[in-house]
């Protein structure tokens, strides 16, 4: 009898824990994300910092900072029976937030792959403006060897690359011109060049794009491309 009671208690605990995570969790492309946002009752959450949110965000989004101290407490006030859509800058924070919301028992959780950077690159937002214009960019990259680096202050790989990127130009004895552009400050260019991920490196030779790389690259591997 005691064994049966223990088994039933254990089964109920398992069922209860499982029930807390029932529902769907999906990471989807920006276009599908935009389409599903039109559904009734959609709750859109921007999980970036307030500073990032103020620089620009999707229409009707509510800012709940994933790295803030009250993320879970704030999200507990949302309707768990209605779909919730989360996004960040490139997808890292939103994926973690989506997993937490799924764990909290939200019925439908959608995480946008690639974040707002990819959303903008695919032309889903209003034309962004700010920073260098395309004509100026074309002029800069039209002669000689030019290495363009798109980065951002919140980007982990960018921070790791920053020290050697800063000393790269002097190490190359000015054989290659290095142009470092903050993606948040140069929204016009990031949209027109379809910068969907950062860091992004682009090497031009006399105006022709000869090499392109997204994500972290080591100093030694980068120098090989510049030889």
Task: Provide structural commentary.
With 227 residues, the protein is α/β, with parallel strands linked by helices. 41% of the residues lie in helices and 21% in strands. The chain folds into two domains: 22-121, 3-Layer(aba) Sandwich (Oxidized Rhodanese, domain 1); 134-226, Glutaredoxin (3-Layer(aba) Sandwich). The protein has a five-stranded parallel beta sheet with strand order 1-5-4-2-3. A four-stranded mixed beta sheet has the order 7-6-8-9, with helices on one face.
In terms of topology, how is this protein built?
Layout: H1 2-20, E1 24-28, H2 30-36, E2 43-46, H3 50-54, E3 62-63, H4 71-75, E4 84-87, H5 92-104, E5 108-112, H6 115-121, H7 134-140, E6 145-151, H8 156-171, E7 176-182, H9 187-192, E8 200-205, E9 208-214, H10 219-226
Parallel strand pairs: 1-5, 2-3, 2-4, 4-5, 6-7
Antiparallel strand pairs: 6-8, 8-9
């Amino acid at each position: 009898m005691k064994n049966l009671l223990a088994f039933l208690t254990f089964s109920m605990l398992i069922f209860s824990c499982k029930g807390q995570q029932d529902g769907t969790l999906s990471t989807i492309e920006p276009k599908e994300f935009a389409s599903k946002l039109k559904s009734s009752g959609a709750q859109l959450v921007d999980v970036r910092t307030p500073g990032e949110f103020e620089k620009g965000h999707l229409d009707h989004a509510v800012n709940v900072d994933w790295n803030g101290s009250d993320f879970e407490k704030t999200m507990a006030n949302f309707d768990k029976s209605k779909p919730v859509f989360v996004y960040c800058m490139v997808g890292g924070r939103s994926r973690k937030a989506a997993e937490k919301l799924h764990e909290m028992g939200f019925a439908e959780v959608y995480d946008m792959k690639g974040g707002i950077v990819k959303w903008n690159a695919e032309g889903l937002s209003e034309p962004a403006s700010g920073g260098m214009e395309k004509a100026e960019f074309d002029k800069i990259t039209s002669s000689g060897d030019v290495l363009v680096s798109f980065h951002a202050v919140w980007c982990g790989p960018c921070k790791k690359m920053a020290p050697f990127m800063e000393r790269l130009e002097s190490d190359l004895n000015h054989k290659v011109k290095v142009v470092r552009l903050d993606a948040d400050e140069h929204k016009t260019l990031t949209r027109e060049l379809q910068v969907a991920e950062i860091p992004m490196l682009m090497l031009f030779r006399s105006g022709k794009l000869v090499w392109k790389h997204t994500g972290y690259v080591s100093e030694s591997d980068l120098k090989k491309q510049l030889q």
